Amino acid sequence: MKRFVILFLCLFLTASSPWQAASPSSPAVVTVLPPAQTATPVPAYTNTPIPATEIIPPTITPAPAPKIERVIILSFDGMRTDAIAAAPMNNLLELMNSSAYNLTTAITIAYPSTLPSHAAMLSGLCTAKNGIFYNRYFKYMGYSQGVDIFDLAHAAGMRTVMIVGKDKLRELAEPETTDVFEIRHDEATVGAAAVEQIAQGFGLMFVHFPSADQVGHKYDWMGGSYLLMLRNGDEALGKIVAALDESGLRESTMIIVTADHGGHDGNHDGTKIEDFRIPWIVSGPEIVPGEITARIHIMDTAATVAYGLGFPQQDDWDGIPVYEAFGLPRLEIHPESVQWPCHEWN
Ligand SMILES: [Zn+2]
After folding, report:
1. Residue 191 alpha carbon to ligand 1 centre in Å
2. 3.30.420.10, 3.40.720.10, 3.40.50.300, 3.40.50.980: which CATH number matches 71-345?
3. Which residues make Cβ contacts (< 8 Å) with residue 216, sequence separation at least 6?
């Protein structure tokens, strides 16, 4: 009986012990809660402007603007300003879209003739100072006097080139300052020679197209033959500009298109404004396109070339830079009373 009671007690304790739940051998009752929301809280929107100081500016360095590194002067002998549209010279007209130009008040010297006019153009000096008061090739008379732009360019170490259609233009600059001097006799061969020189590189080049003047003397200015010669020259100009483009030189080259004089009635004897008026057109880096209103004298070409290339202006020069072409204020120091420059040889 005693053994039965003990067994009964054991069974009772096993089945109903109040400590059963705490027994380590019994499974724990676990309440599984849903996982906590762990998404990153979205910051509340505010329309507070970001302080300017927190904006980091882009660090792109702008490419420096191209500078004038070389100059080419294209002179069409005897080209009147009204012939450009009449011809028409389509390549020049296209170039003018990006050029500063004067087709109304630019004039040559009082003795409007090929050699004296070109001497004033490249020397910056009136005839009395450069000494070229004759329109023929007088070898014994030597060369244009004074400091001309070929002197300055050559002294600066530039390769200097002169391609002309008339042999008397040899007197424009000394052989010592012209690394290349070539004579060709029509627009196509002058242009081809210029293109060859562009391929070799240059600092200063003067290119002279002879035929419009020659035909003008024979058949008159503004006639069909005269205009045809200008179209031929315009075709050469197109090839020269294309050569500058293809060689990558265009954007750093100043191009000046001008003339030595105009003409009328088979001559340019200085009896009409059409003999004196010349086109003056410049394009290239630093040039501000548009019409120039300032009076331009042919001697200003040398001064403008020097200004563009950073050469010093010469104290005795009669020409001044055409500052208006660079977007600078007009400077008019030519005496208004002097209608025709360099009148001492008139
Ligand atoms: Zn001429």
Report:
1. 18
2. 3.40.720.10
3. 78, 223, 226, 263, 266, 268
